[in-house]
Predict the structure of Amidohydrolase family protein.
Amino acid sequence: MYLRTTFFALCLLIVIACQHEPRQGDPRLLIENAFILTLEPGQTQPVKGYLLVDQNGAISGLAAGQPPAGLVVQRRLDAQGQWLLPGFVSAHSHLWQSAFYGIAANDNLEGWIARLYGVEAPKLDASQLYQLTRRGATQHLQNGITSVFNFTYTGADRSGEVDRQQLRGALDAGVRVVHGFNVRTINDSWTPAMARERTAAFLAWADAQPETGRYLGTMLAGYAGFVSASAGQAQVEGDLMREFSLGNQQHYLESVVDSAGERERYPVLEQAGIIGPRLIFGHFIHSTPELTDAAARAGVSMSWNPMSNGRLGSGMADVLAYRAAGMKVGMGVDGEASADRADPFENMRMGLYQVRAVHQRAAAMQAYEVLRLHTLGSAEVLGIDAQVGSLKVGKRADMFLLDPRAFTPWQEPYAALVFGAGVKDIREVFVDGVSLAR
């Protein structure tokens, strides 16, 4: 009798244990007791509660208070009051530049380009570009950046291998990426037909990669706005945008020296069909009120890169005027060769303090605004805001936990975060609810 009773008791314990053992289909992650800054429109009040991630990496629950009793999950994390934020989005990065800290330290853009692109970059082969891209993407993740627009380097390569290796480097690091594809300079030795063939081949290859969720698509990393570009360059880029439904991000009006000539190319971009909602102007520093209004009316957006612009002495983008004109604005940390740190906290502070100093008014831009620009605002510029940029049920669980003790006690959460926090305070970074950095 004793043995039979003991046997049944043991079986009962096994059944109970199995009922509470996480299984494949259970939610992937529960973070409880968190101070959640969602960055969702209209929800500026932080939520003291929990966030639940389903087995596919989407946010399936977010609410104040405690999670439902008896919830079985694959990982349960007690945040103990740590802050939970959406991952930063960099609308403008060069991941391959992760080996060039401090290069051309006292040069403006033109001297910097001559050193980096004229001397150093041509030495790199496809395998080196893979390693540098993966390193840059890893550093982005460690600093809380979970989605990125990545400008790639092509150089003299015509095979497409450098393009493939740079996309693989980003994906293998785990970051979510919009791939910036180089058409290459159109001339007698590189024809529109060759550019089209290379573009089509890359897009077919990229679409076949297994990371369908983290590969967010390809945009052109265009040259058509440069003073050195031909009208044929603009036409090819416009044709490729239409044929393959591609966006285009141009480095435009960054250079003090070339800005007048680049402004004169605006009608060329219009005639080629490049100007419109699928175009992003990177940097966009030396605009005019007339050009700003025209671009805003056409639906063009821009990426603000204050650390890089300051380091290279390029100037300051008038983001207040751009936003007032109705232009969407995001932020990018650019490359380690020109900003030297893929640091969104420093980038926000640099931009915010520049605006306040130039306008001599502290209320010209608020902490919440610049935080939004580097999260949901950048996602909107890249057209990925349905997936990332804020914490909301149905969106991807791209986020990071931050320890607030370094800036506690605080008065107002967004000001304390933007003014006082740094990458050193990040404790864990997630993409799809999977921990990638801690």
User: Anything to note?
Assistant: The mean pLDDT is 95.
